[in-house]
Design goal:
The chain has 179 residues and is of the alpha+beta class. It has helices spanning 21-30, 54-69, 80-88, 113-122, 148-157, 166-178, and strands at 2-8, 34-39, 44-49, 75-79, 102-107, 128-132, 135-139, 161-165. A four-stranded antiparallel β-sheet has the order 2-3-1-4, sandwiched between helices. A hairpin with a 2-residue loop joins strand 6 and strand 7. The chain is globular, with a radius of gyration of 16 Å.
Length: 179
C-alpha cells in the first residue's frame, strides 16, 4: 500500500464550500482508502491506497467529491516521495524555522519557462519565489496576508495550485511517514 496526500483547493474558505473534516475522513474511507487522517480545516488528507500513481486517484476523488458535495474542488494528490522531495528541495532553508513566512504551492503541472518569467516580472516586493518541478516555493517575509505578490500569483502564473504554509507541509510529511 502506498501513502498519498490530498490537498484540496477552495474548501472552507471565508465560510464558503464548507466540508467538515470528519465527513471528509469518512468520505475517503467509503472510497476504500486506508489509514485516513485529516489535518486542519483547509482540506489536507493523508491516506493509504493500493495504487502506484496519483493521477487516477485524483480523477476518482474529484469526481466522487463533486457528486457528494455538489461543487468541484481542485485536488492535488501526491505521494510520500513527492512530499519528501518538496521538503528536501526547499530553496529557503534559512527561513524554514519561521513557517508563517515560507509556503509551498502544489501545482497542477510544471510551469513553462515563459510562465515563470511572467511571474518573475511581477515579483517586485519583499517576496521571493522559486519553482522546482510542480512546486512553487514562496518566501513572504511580511507574511502571506500582507503579500500583494501572493494575491496576484494565481492569476499571473495561470497554473492551478494550492498553497500551504511550511508548518502544514512539515506536519503532513510527519503524518504521511507515520501512516
Amino acid at each position: 500500500m502506498s501513502v498519498f496526500v490530498a490537498l484540496f483547493s477552495g474548501i472552507n474558505v471565508g465560510g464558503n464550500r464548507l466540508v467538515r473534516m470528519a465527513e471528509l475522513r469518512t468520505f475517503f474511507e467509503e472510497l476504500g482508502f486506508a489509514d485516513v487522517a485529516t489535518y486542519i480545516q483547509s482540506g489536507n488528507v493523508v491516506f493509504g491506497a493500493e495504487a502506484s500513481e496519483a493521477g487516477p486517484l485524483t480523477e476518482r476523488i474529484e469526481a466522487a467529491f463533486e457528486k457528494r458535495w455538489g461543487f468541484r474542488s481542485r485536488i492535488m494528490v501526491r505521494d510520500l516521495g513527492w512530499l519528501e522531495a518538496l521538503v528536501a528541495n526547499n530553496p529557503y532553508p534559512e527561513v524554514a524555522d519561521d513557517p508563517t513566512r515560507l509556503h509551498a504551492s502544489a501545482l497542477e503541472r510544471e510551469p513553462t519557462a515563459e510562465e515563470i518569467a511572467r511571474l518573475a516580472e511581477r515579483c517586485t516586493g519583499p517576496e521571493s519565489f522559486a519553482v522546482k518541478g510542480d512546486v512553487l516555493y514562496l518566501h513572504a517575509p511580511d507574511g502571506l496576508g500582507k503579500s500583494k505578490f501572493a494575491e496576484m500569483l494565481p492569476r499571473t502564473l495561470k497554473v492551478p495550485g494550492t498553497m500551504r504554509n511550511w508548518r502544514t507541509v512539515l506536519t503532513l510529511l510527519d503524518m504521511a511517514r507515520k501512516a
